[in-house]
Design brief:
By secondary structure, the chain is mainly alpha-helical. It has a domain at 22-173. It is 73% helix and 0% strand. The protein is built from eleven helices and no strands. It is a multi-pass membrane protein. This is Nucleoporin POM33. Belongs to the PER33/POM33 family.
């Protein structure tokens, strides 16, 4: 997910506030659906900070309630307020639906703290952009020209968004590996979570440049590690077999036309 392109309401950017009481402007702003979306991201951010200090389960659940709330508003806007019909294939490529469905799974399954990281990062950028484009200009009349706060928020979102999205993809791939290991040792509900999350990773690989970059980076690193002379031949053979099967699997597309195995390998390279 690129937070500059999706995961936010389709309302226009706010103009600087006219003269008047800040409280009245805030009340007017708070009545919008976009503000409700912003509140969801605020819940995610502040609950996750408290959770990292206390690890209380109710805070973990509250984070995901905030996620479901904010992503649910986007889905409501895109698929219920608009009259343009969407086919099933397009629903599979809708990042908001994908992350909403995944958050619902995490909400009702045993705690898995690493799963919070992508949502925290998404909420951080959406929260910052709403302050920058809506809250501060509307309520306080601030602009980039007269406010260092807005300038700093703008610099942050412009300079770190792309980098963090690549990092999110790496975290998601790490999560897949951890779920695989948990499934191999028969952890609670692991054989339910692992296939569901694998489906999520497959769809992300097909549609996200960040996910494909994470796979490519891992492949280069693993190729280097496995090629070391100290690695037993049986391990190298197992690695080559697994890599080949994954390349073949990538040729079967869920959301796009099917690629040949040769084309899939070329795409990964």
């Amino acid at each position: 997910m690129d937070t500059t392109q999706s995961g936010k309401p389709t309302e226009s950017k706010a103009t600087p506030a006219p003269a008047g009481a800040a409280g009245a402007r805030f009340v007017k702003l708070a009545k919008s659906l976009q503000f409700a979306w912003f509140v969801g991201h605020a819940i995610v951010l502040f609950s996750s900070v408290l959770y990292m200090f206390t690890f209380k389960e109710w805070l973990y659940r509250l984070v995901y309630l905030g996620v479901v709330h904010s992503f649910g508003i986007i889905i409501y806007q895109q698929h219920f307020l608009k009259t343009v019909p969407r086919d099933t294939a397009s629903l599979l490529t809708d990042e908001n639906i994908l992350y909403f469905a995944l958050a619902t799974v995490w909400l009702f399954t045993p705690r898995f703290t690493i799963s919070l990281i992508p949502y925290i990062i998404f909420s951080l950028f959406h929260f910052a952009r709403y302050l920058q484009n809506n809250f501060l200009p509307v309520v306080f009349g601030l602009t980039r020209e007269n406010s260092g706060i807005i300038q700093n928020l703008t610099n942050f979102t412009q300079n770190f968004n792309e980098r963090c999205m690549y990092w999110v993809a790496g975290v998601e791939l790490t999560t897949e590996v951890i779920l695989l290991l948990k499934a191999l040792v028969w952890c609670r509900r692991s054989w339910i979570l692992f296939p569901l999350y694998s489906l999520f990773i497959k769809i992300r690989f097909e549609n996200s440049k960040y996910s494909r970059a994470a796979f490519a980076q891992w492949r280069v690193r693993l190729d280097g590690l496995i090629s070391h002379p100290s690695v037993p031949p049986v391990a190298k053979k197992a690695y080559d077999f697994t890599k080949t099967k994954l390349i073949q699997l990538s040729s079967y597309q869920l959301t796009k036309p099917t690629l040949s195995p040769q084309a899939a390998e070329a795409k990964q390279n």
